[in-house]
Write the structure tokens for this entry.
Amino acid sequence: MKYESNFRKTVKKFFRRKLAVVGLVICLVMLFVAIMGPSLSSYSPSETVVEDRYQPPSSVHLFGTDDLGRDMFARILDGARITVAVGVGSTCIALVAGTLLGLLAGFFGGVFDTVISCFMDALWAFPAIILALAINTVLGPSLLNIFIAIGVVYIPDFFRIVRSRTITIRELEYVIGARAIGQNSISILWHYVLPNMSSTLIVQTTLCCAKAVIAEASLSFLGLGVPLPMASWGSMLKSGYPLLERAPWLSLFPGICIMLLVLGLNFLGDGLRDALDVRIRDD
Amino acid sequence: MAKKIVRKVLLMLPVLFLVSIILFTLMEVLPGDAAYGLGSDVSDEYIQQFREEHGLDKPAYVRYLDWVTNMLKGDFGVSLISGLPIIDRIKVRFPVTLELTLLSMIVAVVIAIPAGILSAVKRNTLPDYLTSVLAMVGVTIPPFWLGMLMVLLFSITLGWLPASGYVELTESVSENLTRMIMPALALGTQFAATVTRQTRSAFLETLDQDYIVTAKAKGLPQRVVIWKHALRNALIPIVTTIGMQTGRLFGGAVVIETVFTLPGIGREIVNSILLRDYPVVMALIMIVAFIVIVINTLIDIIHGLIDPRISQSQQR
Amino acid sequence: MKQETNQEYLLEIKDLTTAFLFDGKPVPVTVNVSYGIKKGEILGIVGESGSGKSVTVKSVLRLLPSPPSSILNGEIYFHGQNLLTLKEKEMQKIRGNKISMIFQEPMTSLNPVYTCGNQITETIMLHQHLSKEEALKKAARMLDLVGIPAPESRLKSYPHQLSGGMRQRVMIAMALSCEPELLIADEPTTALDPTIQAQIITLIKELRDSIGLSVMYITHDLAVVAEICDRVVVMYAGMVMEIAEIRDLFHAPLHPYTQGLMQAMPRINQQSEMLYNIPGMVPHATQMPTGCRFQPRCPYATEVCSQACPELVDAGDGHMVRCFHYEKLRKERVQNG
């Protein structure tokens, strides 16, 4: 009962914020586009039509065509798939690994905590893109490896929040009480500690997703992202950049899409943060 | 105070150690070593000789120890491709990245902190809305794409600024700056936007505190309340953000240097990864990580200076 | 206007209506509040939380942020001058100088990043234009006055190095450092434990006697009122319900709300194990009942109470009360002895 009414209150609070709703709509649309992919367009993203090269945006080719005469709109729809997949996939890796390590380190403390924390500090010391670059190089080019490379980079983000929250919650009376009546550690973590930080995690996940999207775009722009022939919005920017003068739309539309997605995720995250009333530092 | 700083500096060592371990391990599990880079038309003997020459045949822990001790002596090894000492290349490349990051940081901080304060003090007015919208856009825009847009506008369309290239500061200050201003802005925008948002929220939170009411009740004018009582408290989270963002700045520099073809450390890292010149990659990343760790330590020390509560608890 | 002010009063609040924005609309949280404080007097202002006590006194120093607050109506006279019409610059010369204020939360009312000395001397240098050294000497004297041992070394302490009681003493020292005529104490002991509370109350009483300070003492605790105040203003839901001398109030409360508050006071010689509680809660500013604002919780309420709001009337000897049935209460009191 109590939970239900709290949940309703949160939903109400969320929908009262216009920007949050805008963010939610953007994210849902992007998700829809990513799932449907190029089937939303009558053009194929890979079909090259030599006589249609470098067509500026028009009613025929909504976003124009590229140097090989491919329809940019279809390519963008196709790229959404990769971009969204990397954003969600790598965030999932960071979320699961960071939360797990944070829970264990915070709950058990001791040497384990010290070692893991120090390791996370070390990971934190690498600039995100450089670390992702290095990991990705090690793993070799594949979609899954991009997930891992970017995911690992953001593990410390989750780890730090979860660990400090766990330490706080660990000392709360009802957790001590649960311990006193002999509940085992895993059940305490699962039933008491984790639900207590769920709202923090939800917000952090949204914001992390936004960071992951930018990271993927950066990697792909450097030519070290998803392997060909896969094309994310980032790799479209890479191939569009040398043609900036000839066909600026090739650089414009993928960039706008990235920004829109990141904007949507940020609006959503901010809205959730207010609605769920959690505090996370902006970083 | 001195004791505290020493402690902080000592605390850097285990992190640095772990960073070097992570880096070394990463490079160790890389498929193939530099001998791969020699191509397929060289003889097996030559590859063998090459490996011995560069110590690639020794066990990993020996190579790790060699690497670390040499680095401590200031010797970062030689590039596998050019055979030249890496330190020479660092000396050339590092100032470019340093100028880029410093420039963007200065521009960002000079704009961001006053903008954030203005936004907080004039909450829910037009200047606040404008600042908040701009900051939101700044946070979400990918830096390298912003760079591309700038090139499109200022170089291609208007023809005001050169799109690429680098001129050393010592050669010509104006030439240097006309080439650095776009990269610095592109790189600094996200930084500035984040700092603006943090400043705004930190100030709003601080202005809500009881001691601000006390300060007003004492009859202090608004400017003293803000610049003395609120600023120093709000600065604590702001400094944290600046510290965390600095690491990101170096990451961003990698991409920005590629957009504007600046011969900095970031571009060198990307090139070296593509060429599998691992000693160079390791040395450069190690340096970047070292700088980030030093900056974080500095931030910790600055915290202690701003907030007496921190320095007290650490003395115990 | 000036001649209308009561010469007896050091500070007089007249018909003060302060509003806050709720969902974008200004809603009055205090309505036509009028009371005054005499020189050398300790005036208690009592009421449950949400009764508008704090809003009223913060309006006196104009400390409420605007928006969301705004003063819709009223005057506040200090030495015959209406504070509400003063320019911000002139107001700054009064705050901390002529009228000082101390707050409920000593733990958070001092700025954590500056030393106590810095924060006290800041006020002194601002209003009295003393040099740093003179200000420091004076600050040390003030700390001594409020009973802080080793004042010179305490000046170098940061707030977090002091206990709650000590911090409230520092706040008092700071508030008194420019010899104000009026001290507004907004629940200064609520956050402190009982022994410290008693010490602070004793200190305020002593200061009144030794330097002739006037004190507006806000509290929800009638026991504290009984201990320290000369006169009492009882507020409920943003309105003044009763104003009386301390003896009159405790011997013959004329408002059912005051009576309820007194019954809710724990007594050592009380036999019953249940503590009386006024049923219900203070209504929110946006949901005020019609008629008398206390009527839904009042045991004496009749039909008339929900139809009109009673005026604040003089029930004799300056004992003011806002209730249709105060005569009934008086009679009951006489019958019960």
Q: What stands out?
A: The longest strand of chain C covers residues 9-22. The radius of gyration of chain C is 21 Å. Chains C and A do not touch (no CB pair under 8 Å).
